[in-house]
Amino acid sequence: MALEYKTTIRNRMDVIAPLVRSGRVLDLGIVDSRRERHRTEDRLEKLPNLLFRQICEINPATVGVDIDEEGIEILARQGYQVMAGDVTKIDLGEQFDTIIAGEIIEHLENPGLFLRNMLKHLHPAGVLVITTPNPFYFKQVWKIFRRNRPQVHEEHTCWFDPITLNHLCEVCGFQTQACYWIQKNTFSFKTWPRLLRNYFSHSFLLVVKPRPCRHSEQQP
User: Are residues 29 and 103 in contact, defined by beta-carbon separation less than 8 angstroms?
Assistant: First the structure.
């Protein structure tokens, strides 16, 4: 299925906010671990990440999942509805109207297993929103010129562009509704080519839904 590129957005919440206003919402990868440096110690602070906080402000009943058990305990004490678990294996025993996977798929050992598990947790009329960095972000060219390598987060396991991620979603039982490029509205000599080609944007967002025939396909 050919991708339908919508437009370039400045903030992923422009797309996410209308999708989480009602219904059952699941947000994945919600713990933000920050190293706090104090006068006497260097400790790791665990907080709800910005995306999870923004979604909970819109829909306080949002359920959050993260593999970080210590972080989940902290967030639970703060009143958030959260559970610890591996998103490729967890079974929450219910289906959701909207599932948000913000900058998580590039951290996983098995993205296909993750997508198939989320398919089980998604209502047949629901949507899964995936955001991830774009490997063709033009600023990476400057990183390669300066350091002879791109800038890669130490915990990333893979790269996706819209074409490859769209194909993986199709293989795992989804169909893509729309693709959005994400780029802050700032001008830089290192990033100006994105004005000519959207494929040089910083990151992208896919909205996918279950294929209507998925249930019949799963029958023996």
Answer: yes
Q: Which of 11, 31, 97, 102 is nearest to 59 (CA)?
A: 97
Distances in Å between the Cα of 179 and the Cα atoms of 4, 13, 59, 167, 170 are 6, 14, 24, 13, 14
Confidence of residue 101 (pLDDT cuts 50, 70, 90): very high
HSE-up of 102 (CA within 13 Å, CB side)?
23
**Nearest partner of 127 among 52, 13, 16, 48, judged by Cα:** 16
pTM of the predicted model as reported, rounded to 2 decimal places: 0.89
How would you list the strands of the sheet with 96-102, edge to edge?
5-9, 174-182, 203-210, 122-133, 96-102, 25-28, 63-66, 81-84
Instruction: Please answer whether residues 63 and 92 qualify as being in contact, where contact means their C-beta atoms are separated by less than 8 angstroms.
Output: yes
Non-local CB neighbours of 178 within 8 Å, separated by 6+ positions: 4, 5, 6, 206, 207
CA 203 distance to own-chain centroid: 11
User: What would the pLDDT profile of 140-155 be if each residue is shown by its tens digit?
Assistant: 877 888 888 887 778 8
- Give all domains of the chain, ordered by start, each with its CATH number: 5-34+43-215 (3.40.50.150)
User: What tokens does 186 get?
Assistant: 């700032």
pLDDT in tens, 104-127: 999 999 999 999 999 999 999 999
